[in-house]
Fold each of these.
Amino acid sequence: MKYVATLHVRPKAEIRDPQGEAVSAALRALGFAVTAVRTGKEMVVTFDAADEPAALDAVRTMGQELLANPVIEVYEFDLKELARA
Amino acid sequence: MTRVALLRYPGTWSERDFQHAFSLVPEIETEILWHEDADLRGFDAAIVPGGFTYGDYLRAGAIAKISPATKALRRFADEGKPVLGSCNGFQILCEAGLLPGALLRNAGLEYRCDWIHVRVEQERTPWTAGMAGRVLRMPIGHGEGCFVADPDTIASLEESGRVVFRYTDARGAATLESNPNGSISNIAGVTNEAGNVVGLMPHPERCVEALLGGTDGYQILANLTGALAGTAPAIYR
């Protein structure tokens, strides 16, 4: 089966996000009343797995082992099975 | 002869600087090892040099951590062998879990390329034996050097003396102005529990002779032979 996982990786709430701070200042420079920006990443992973539990397992492992760094980041994801043509 | 392995990943750029720096140290020979077939058997120490491995894609050091070289390095470190990671090497060691914490983008929104000062906080490592309290002047060049960890980890690092280098001014005072990247508690380098793995953001290999503008990095590299021979004033096992 083919699955598509969409992962959102964000800096933990207590971790400083210098990129977000820079974007926040830039938005204020454009005249918006911005008080905070937090930046993150979206990753869309298309992969094969035997069934849905195996696919869930695989995505969690991808997140923990590589796609997010648990020291500074959290991630969440949603998983969809790709409709077969 | 002490044999030092210099790991080269795709995007590593400081391995030849390290090779040159170690060539100035008596009784040390180096070999550059390509990450895919890095065999650390027979080496006495390993260096993870700076660079931009894998283009810093995903996170600095993140992709290098799954390389075969990093697996070999983990076994090597577990055996208690001395390991030093500088700049991107420090980032790789943190990503691989060989050192605590993580390195974020600099708080000042700048890539910092400069000469800075650090104070040696811990001499019980193979790289800093006999150097406690010394203020070293070394170059940095990084965009992601802001050391962070959760408050418990920071407290435990401080209590157990695992902060090895701290950014200071020229007189050794850890001020806000002397912190080039926003690192918590001005931390510039740390060690693992056993004290054999050290990571730091500055580049000791770029300050080993007067021609380069400074020589303070030389002793960090030269300490290795003494530490291995048991002649340095180090408690390092």
Note: The domain at 2-81 of chain A is CATH 3.30.1280.10 (Mth169; Chain: A ,).
Amino acid sequence: MEITTATHDGATVLTLTGRVDTTTSADLEAAINQQIEKGNRKILINFSGVTYISSGGLRVLLATAKKLRNGDDRYALCCLSAEVHKVLKLAGFTSIFSIYPSEGEALAKW
Amino acid sequence: MPGAGGAECYPVIRKIDTISSNSYLIRTPDALVLIDPGGLAEQADHLISVIDECRKERYIPLVVFLTHAHVDHFLSLLQSSSLTDPELSVIALQEAGVIALREGDRDVTQAAILGLEITNIEIGLCLLSRKGASTPGIPATLTFPNGVTIRTVRDEIAGGSGAPIQREHITIGQGLEIDIFNTPGHSPDSICLRLGRMLFIGDLLFAASPGVAGIVGWSQDALLQSIDAIYSLVCGNEVDIVCPGHGRVISAATAKTMLVSIRKDVLTLGGIEELNKERSLDTATFAEECLEHVSELFTIMAGRLYYVSYVIEELGEADMAEHLATLIRSDTVDELLDSFSAFSEEYRSGKQQPIHLALKAAHVMAKIERSFDGAALGRIIDPTLVSRTGRLLSDYTTTLRGFSPPTESSLQNISSILEALIISNSVPACSDDDLLSSADDNDAFVQVLLARIGTPPLLKDVEVTFECPDPMLVAPIDLDRFCDLVTEILEDLVGTGAEKIQITVYKSGSFVIITITGTGCIRSTSEQETGFMRRACHNAGGSLIYDCSGATRRFEITLNPVQ
């Protein structure tokens, strides 16, 4: 899995490509934690290049939600493939996260 | 080697796989005996180096016995001329194997299913020939170009179930005595060899295993007879150590226990479908479909549990949240799924054969099954997620064993089943009344609360319409499998964002037809998933057509007519 990081209007966008599996979910967690440690607490994860997420990946998403819940924090997911959307929806995660169809729509709300 | 007059055994014991067998090299003053050179060139090279070492002081002739002519037991011969050169060695094989090799039979030798090629090998000594059976007790002496003299005498011994089995007593040189027993079943040419108090039994212990039982040349009747005969032999006082073709060497007592258990398994294998190249391909396709679906179901279950744990932790119940995480060993299952995915990639790139993928899937599924507490999970999250995962794992094992997954067809009112499914997926698993009535008992309250959080109604945020002009329509279906299928379709539509779902039931001729249409969806179903649902529909008692047009996706189930 590849992770590219970009900044837009104070928000950090992590764009993922590939599988979020056992190995790569640890990389994702490290990349998110690195941003949070730098003080970047508006994080958008773009899933446009992901068709598979493991339970390890779900755990990382949930752990991030626990870290970003102060008043000014922002945390959302966007561009979910149908496969990833189905897993998140049926696991009940769509009621915890803000999910947007595109980066633009997510950032417009921040 | 106990009871073998000073003979020494050099065993090459491998991790169990389909590529190569164990090898056993035996040194006596008269001859070297090699039982099963294996399937790998490097294994043969290693054995040749040991043989060369044994011959350092003087030449000793070599006799190679094959417990049967399956490629994992003999293919290395084709790559090592020093083992096949008649001036250096004699190769001995049961008559049916001699014929298979002479004819280059890729099916009986399992070369076809493993994607391998074979060429002719010169067999010096044909064991347990039909012709020899007609001259019991009359010895024959043969001298071979490599200098070895072999004396053979045919007879038969009582088999455990009464039917006698053929034996060939062999004397190599002046005093190396070997008993060869005819033990077909795993293959037509399978033999067991006894040297002193050691018994070499080839693949007898694996003959009932999924992915092995039913291979071309396999026979249930012959196998039962062979198991009985060998059981009777190990129960006697002539064998201490049993050397299988794969895996570790075992004691006679362990072999006895294993043979009893294998016999029971073999008895269940009546009517097993032949495991040939075609079936291995079908099974591999099903394996990929199953694992993809198991992966999705498992990730949803684990995610649901994380979600419950998250909410419970928010409520200040950190200990309970921690306990929930133990119900699924998520990391283990993720690793298993990743390893299958990598193996599947290799298969798709042509590096693995279908049978290898099928066996890998069985291995992964067996481990997944041990990685979650289904009973405890089913009390918290949607129990059908757990039961469907269990059924999939079971169906796969059944298919790999060579049987069709069990179905129970009965005449059912389709309208009332669908209505009940819609209702059960629209209301919380635990009602407000359940919650209130459990309030006096802390344990009961926690259980109801967990279930309420962990099992949200699937159709909660979706507009569902149901049309069935004739509420009395009946059709023969497997009720559980039908409900699973409809739930799968509803989950697929809801999971991919359907805003509205329309379910219609009507009759066309003698067929009951159900259409389930979702609108506002964000994708089309992948080919593999549709294949999985078609198979599920077939087992439920119908056929499935899937159609996708933009954001609208439509599943049409045609149920089998009433006979």
Note: The domain at 8-128+140-267 of chain B is CATH 3.60.15.10 (Metallo-beta-lactamase; Chain A).
